[in-house]
Specification:
single chain, 240 residues, alpha+beta, NADH Oxidase, five-stranded antiparallel sheet, 11% strand, binds flavin mononucleotide
Length: 240
């Protein structure tokens, strides 16, 4: 494979936040799951399990559970100054896109007992992100591979972070054992429209050779300006 082929795929991969209901061939879904299987994980623990939801009623219910939890998030986000508010919440509630039409939602669960595969020190010391850090990074990698594979088929995917405000409801809905954690859900489908290309910082701004170039270290004010600018640039991605 040529490096430019890989880079092209990586640049073309796009978060979609609204989908056409058109079905995805099962062979595509299998290949996408196979990509998740090959993700890197701490000590090769492979803590993930994938629940592939295709039932329309279940997908609608997952979307409803998430929408309900967003009401609380919206109140919290609206307490921020508008310039720094997450772009998703700059859009009025009734205009937010949603994944209810996606033909497939992959629910990525993790078995936290598997982090014991990592070095024993990780279990005893809570530094460096705590013992669950490796577990979370590993699940993130599987999510990433799934997104990349979906892009090969011209599909859009959304990375939806699940938190404790709705994880329990999801687990009950999908019969997921209490022991497992649900970290991300990934709706996949043909995008409703071509998502706006997102902003990326320039390579030169983030790369340092041999030693960190302190001229590139950003002040607090620059970071605040950066986040405000990011919000403005991100807005189109969250508009339906
Ligand atoms: C850890 C993580 C959490 C994310 N959580 C969400 C989320 O909850 N909802 C969402 O729509 N996108 C989420 N995203 C996707 C990012 O918003 C997206 O990758 C970013 O805006 C860049 O756009 P792109 O994916 O099209 O390049 C998440 C991505 C990561 C890596």
């Amino acid at each position: 494979m040529e490096i430019d082929t890989l880079l092209d795929l990586m640049r073309r991969r796009r978060s979609a936040r609204r989908f056409k209901p058109d079905p995805i061939p099962d062979e595509h879904i299998q290949k996408i799951l196979e990509a998740g299987r090959w993700a890197m994980s701490g000590a090769n623990g492979q803590p993930w399990e994938f629940v592939v939801v295709k039932d329309r009623d279940l997908i609608q219910e997952v979307a409803r559970i998430r929408r309900d939890c967003q009401k609380h998030t919206r109140v919290m986000e609206e307490s921020r100054v508008k310039e720094l508010r997450h772009a998703a919440y700059l859009v009025p509630a009734n205009e937010m896109p949603g994944f209810k039409d996606a033909p497939v939602v992959i629910v990525i669960c993790g078995d936290p007992r598997v982090y014991q595969a990592t070095v024993v020190a990780a279990h005893f010391y809570a530094g460096d992100g705590g013992p669950m850090a490796t577990f979370h990074k590993s699940i993130g990698n599987a999510t990433q591979f799934i997104h990349l594979a979906a892009a090969v088929f011209g599909l859009g995917a959304q990375w939806i972070s699940v938190d404790s405000t709705w994880e329990g409801q999801l687990k009950r809905l999908l019969d997921i054992p209490e022991m497992l954690s649900v970290q991300t859900i990934v709706p996949i489908g043909y995008p409703h429209h071509k998502p706006a290309p997102p902003f990326r910082r320039k390579l030169d701004e983030m790369v340092h050779y041999d030693k960190y170039d302190s001229a590139k270290f950003r002040t607090d004010e620059q970071i605040q300006e950066y986040i405000a600018d990011l919000r403005r640039r991100s807005l189109p991605a969250y508009q339906a």
